[in-house]
């Protein structure tokens, strides 16, 4: 075969040449094996299990924890010995001035010479952001900033195991660290509505070429999941910045509708606020979102809480003597639940080549395996977060008592729901009230996850029997007498909190459908592969739309839409199929296999508004392994006069 | 290629493989060889090495190589699976990878390497792959690889071209839709659809490079457009 022949057929007639060649190749196509042939060969037996080749354990599809006896990580033989780490609240810079250069809404031009732990030297940090903040002056600019936080993403040593059983069994994790306090690991920022803040995030991860322990990339973009924020602060997948740079994430902490549907603001119990008070949110988390590397980077530890309070309208105030009188202060505990695997030295294990999802064999709460928590005899607010990467969980209490659930996906419910368990797809959150005063001192019981999941593809929806493996955390009721000024349980269970925003006030102007499926093992949405240069929808500022999300089934997908929370209209075409937990504002919806109970949802329809901020945002699967395999689309909020408006 | 040439290649192929000692009998030997390769200096090198089976393979040029030592170690690479007789879909993927090769200009073969591994080593012999590579005008930095069935299977599993559903796992077309990309010494590994816009794939790679380009205002193309335009020009002239 000569080069000349190829060239003559290649340019212009390329497709024809390929087709002709392949027609010849098809002459030798062999017969395909049927399902029965495969079953005869016993090929189902090994699927999903641990496969050992050449002495190296690897997980084509790690399927452990709860569901089988396979253990890869060093075993935890002394559970309930370490205390649950409680996320510490970050502290703003002293005097509310940055220790480095002051903020600039166009992106800071000055350098900030400071210690770079990732290169063990001083370094001139630069701001990576080059886009200006929208509505900066309108919302008061620098003068309105009430707190300036300085955080850094850096590598630290962290022992996920019991210090008693495995002293100093440290893993190199990448977490956010507060530079103005000793908060480390899972952190917490406390914010209030109408009090804008800036979170200056330094990227102090190991510089290029330094050891990443086998996975993760030293570029970050912390996404404040699901805040109603301008895209410059949102932490989108393609706004990541390198080690040695920082980014000022400006969080205006303002309710949706403030510049569109509710320009005159709204009033709750005589207290006025900008925007729609019924869009008040509470439990956010921020986590890394680096394109194609979200799964390893979040797994490395880049995940923390951001709790937003509404003292401005005396709702969820962070003070249990006011507003809804929810348990507050030290009795308001966020719990980040994530599963991991470890090698024999205690380092986190990750397989960068897996495609379906990662199931660790050790589940952790606030980065600790099987910790204990001494609780006082009073009411607590516990904020559960499923931080993934792929596992669905269903939290419950081992003494079979109910949760009083007050929030879903960080949104206060119209009224509390009394439920025996709460299922959380990756990134979903559930705030509950638990009253420990009803238990005698010394009472012990467990927080459990009894949801069965045997592959990264999704959950079976079945509940496992309670066992050693399903237990995540031990509660021990102490005998300490303590004041409880939060509302009494009957009030907490019956009071009206935040009624659902009335969709009829802003009727949908457009319907769209997004069908998630796969093509030769790659994800497609509406039969198209993800393209980072393509915007798939242009909703108009101030309008609302009905989106239908479809899945072929067989897999479970927690679909997350950035920007505004939505309301579910139907599952499988019917409003009557909606589950109790669907009846709330949401930012993640489970579709596909075992979306509700053991039943699948081939499709859901949701109502979503697009207000106030213009810019690009993604919708993606929050099984972060699926996300990193391009299960994503981009869309953009545009003003009505935009040439693409409504497309 | 005409039919006669094609049949000649297929016929010669089996002999070629046999001559190089591949087959079930050589499996034990290849395992032994694994243990005699260069001993890593430290834990990081060991970890990097352990990620990949260092199996012997044959390139479409007939060169015997070790997967890790010769193809992966210290390199930036793209890896996909294909098979020559795969109908409608594979050729599209290979054509797309050709476009990707063009996107990188002269870098493929210099500091970026592309590997297309056959899922059908029993059919895709060296001459077969050579014909395939020539048909798609693969440059010198793009190798089509074959080996023993067991070694290929091991590679496929280790590299994550698998489906936990055994029926789907036996369907080869389920493994050809993704492309793995990585910078081995930095242990950065990503994946994307093999049919994705080649300009986008090139960007994914640049973003991963310590001093590569970065998205501008959250988008891949404003800056990329200019680069790829130049590259298109260059490709046009060379073809």
Automatic annotation (TrEMBL), chain A:
Keywords (A to Z) from UniProt: Metal-binding
Alphabetical list of PROSITE patterns matching this protein: MULTICOPPER_OXIDASE2, TAT
Pfam families: Cu-oxidase_2
E.C. code: 1.16.3.4
Residue intervals of the Plastocyanin-like domain: 523-639
Catalytic reaction list: 4 Cu(+) + O2 + 4 H(+) = 4 Cu(2+) + 2 H2O
Keyword hit for Lyase: no
Molecular-function GO terms, alphabetical: copper ion binding; oxidoreductase activity
EC class (word): oxidoreductase
Subunit structure: Monomer.
PANTHER family, alphabetized: BILIRUBIN OXIDASE, CUPREDOXIN SUPERFAMILY PROTEIN
Protein name: Multicopper oxidase CueO
From TrEMBL, chain B:
Gene Ontology MF annotations: metal ion binding
Keyword list, A-Z: Copper, Disulfide bond, Metal-binding, Signal
Any one Pfam family match given in the protein's UniProt record, by short name: SCO1-SenC
Record flagged with keyword Glycoprotein: no
Extent of the signal sequence: 1-28
Top-level taxon: Bacteria
InterPro entries assigned to the protein according to its UniProt record, in alphabetical order: SCO1/SenC, Thioredoxin-like_sf
Disulfide bonds: 86-90
Binding site for Cu cation: 86, 90
Family note: Belongs to the SCO1/2 family.
Matching PANTHER family: ELECTRON TRANSPORT PROTIN SCO1/SENC FAMILY MEMBER, LINALOOL DEHYDRATASE_ISOMERASE DOMAIN-CONTAINING PROTEIN
Name of this chain's protein: SCO family protein
């Amino acid at each position: 075969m000569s080069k000349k022949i190829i060239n003559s057929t290649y340019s212009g007639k390329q497709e024809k040449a390929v087709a002709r060649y392949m027609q010849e190749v098809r002459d030798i196509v062999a017969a395909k094996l049927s399902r029965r042939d495969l079953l005869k060969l016993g090929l189902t037996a090994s699927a999903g299990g641990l496969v050992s080749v050449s002495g190296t354990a690897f997980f084509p599809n790690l399927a452990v924890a709860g569901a089988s006896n396979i253990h890869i990580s060093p075993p935890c033989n002394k559970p309930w010995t370490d205390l649950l780490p409680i996320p510490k609240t970050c502290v703003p810079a002293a005097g509310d001035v940055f220790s480095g250069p002051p903020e600039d809404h166009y992106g800071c031009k000055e350098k900030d010479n400071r210690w770079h732990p990732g290169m063990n030297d001083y370094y001139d940090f630069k701001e990576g952001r080059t886009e200006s903040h929208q509505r900066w002056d309108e919302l008061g600019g620098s003068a309105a900033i009430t707190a300036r936080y300085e955080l850094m993403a850096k590598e630290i040593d962290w022992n996920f195991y019991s210090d008693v059983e495995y002293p100093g069994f440290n893993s190199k994790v990448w977490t956010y660290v507060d530079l103005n306090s000793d908060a480390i690991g899972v952190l917490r920022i406390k914010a209030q509505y109408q009090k804008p803040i800036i979170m200056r995030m330094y990227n102090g991860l190991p510089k290029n070429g330094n050891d990443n322990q086998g996975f993760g990339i030293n570029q970050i973009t912390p996404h404040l999941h699901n805040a109603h924020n301008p895209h410059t602060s949102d932490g989108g997948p393609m706004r990541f910045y390198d080690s040695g740079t920082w980014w000022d994430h400006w969080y205006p902490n303002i309710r949706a509708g403030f510049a569109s549907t509710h320009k005159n603001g709204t009033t709750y119990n005589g207290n006025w606020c900008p925007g729609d008070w019924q869009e008040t949110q509470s439990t956010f988390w921020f986590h890394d979102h680096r394109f194609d590397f979200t799964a390893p980077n979040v797994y490395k530890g880049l995940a923390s809480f951001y709790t937003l309070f509404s003292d401005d309208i005396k709702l969820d105030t962070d003070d249990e003597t006011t507003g809804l009188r929810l348990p507050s202060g030290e009795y308001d505990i966020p719990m980040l639940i994530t599963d991991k695997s470890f090698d024999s030295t205690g380092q986190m294990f990750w397989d960068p080549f897996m495609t379906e999802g990662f199931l660790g064999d050790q589940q952790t709460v606030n980065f600790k395996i099987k910790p204990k928590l001494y609780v006082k005899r009073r009411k607590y607010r516990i904020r559960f977060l499923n931080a993934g990467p792929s596992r669905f969980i269903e939290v419950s209490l081992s003494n079979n008592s109910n949760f009083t659930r007050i929030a879903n996906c960080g949104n206060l419910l119209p009224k509390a729901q009394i439920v025996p368990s709460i299922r959380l797809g990756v990134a979903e959150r559930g705030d509950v009230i638990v009253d420990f005063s009803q238990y005698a001192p010394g009472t012990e019981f467990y927080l459990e996850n009894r949801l069965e999941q045997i592959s990264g593809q999704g959950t079976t929806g079945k509940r496992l029997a309670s066992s050693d493996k399903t237990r995540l955390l031990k509660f021990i009721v102490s005998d300490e007498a303590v004041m409880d000024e939060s509302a009494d349980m009957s009030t907490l269970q019956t009071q009206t909190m935040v009624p659902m925003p009335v969709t009829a006030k802003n009727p949908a102007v457009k319907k769209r459908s997004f069908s998630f499926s796969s093509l030769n093992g790659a994800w497609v949405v509406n039969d198209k592969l993800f393209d980072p240069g393509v915007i798939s929808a242009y909703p108009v500022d101030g309008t609302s739309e009905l989106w239908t999300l479809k899945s072929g089934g067989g897999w479970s997908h927690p679909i997350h839409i950035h920007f505004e929370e939505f309301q579910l209209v139907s599952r499988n075409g019917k409003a009557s199929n909606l589950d109790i937990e669907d009846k709330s504002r949401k930012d993640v919806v489970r579709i596909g296999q075992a979306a509700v109970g053991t039943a699948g949802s081939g499709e859901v329809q949701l109502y979503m508004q697009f207000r106030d901020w213009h810019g690009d945002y993604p919708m993606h699967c929050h099984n972060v392994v699926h996300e990193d395999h391009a299960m994503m689309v981009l869309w953009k909020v545009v003003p009505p006069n935009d040439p693409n408006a409504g497309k | 290629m005409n039919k006669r040439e094609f049949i000649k290649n297929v016929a010669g192929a089996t002999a070629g493989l046999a001559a190089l000692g591949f087959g079930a009998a050589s499996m034990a030997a290849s395992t032994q060889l694994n243990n005699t390769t260069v001993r890593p200096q430290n834990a990081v090198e060991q970890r990097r090495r352990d990620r990949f089976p260092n199996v012997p393979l044959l390139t479409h040029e007939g060169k015997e190589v070790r997967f890790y030592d010769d193809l992966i170690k210290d390199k930036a690479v793209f890896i996909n699976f294909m098979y020559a007789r795969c109908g409608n879909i594979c050729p599209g993927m290979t054509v797309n990878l050709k476009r990707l090769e063009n996107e990188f200009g002269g870098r493929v073969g210099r500091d970026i390497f592309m590997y297309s591994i056959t899922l059908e080593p029993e059919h895709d012999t060296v001459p077969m792959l050579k014909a395939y590579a020539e048909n798609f005008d693969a440059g010198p930095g793009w190798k089509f690889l074959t080996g023993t069935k067991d070694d290929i299977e091991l590679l496929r599993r280790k590299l994550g071209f698998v489906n936990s559903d055994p029926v789907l796992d036996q369907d080869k077309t389920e493994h050809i839709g993704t492309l793995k990309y990585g910078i081995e010494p930095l242990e950065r590994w990503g994946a994307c659809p093999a049919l994705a816009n080649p300009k986008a794939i090139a960007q994914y790679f640049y973003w991963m490079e310590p001093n590569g380009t970065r998205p501008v205002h959250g988008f891949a193309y404003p800056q990329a457009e200019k680069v790829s335009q130049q590259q298109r020009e260059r490709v046009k002239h060379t073809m």
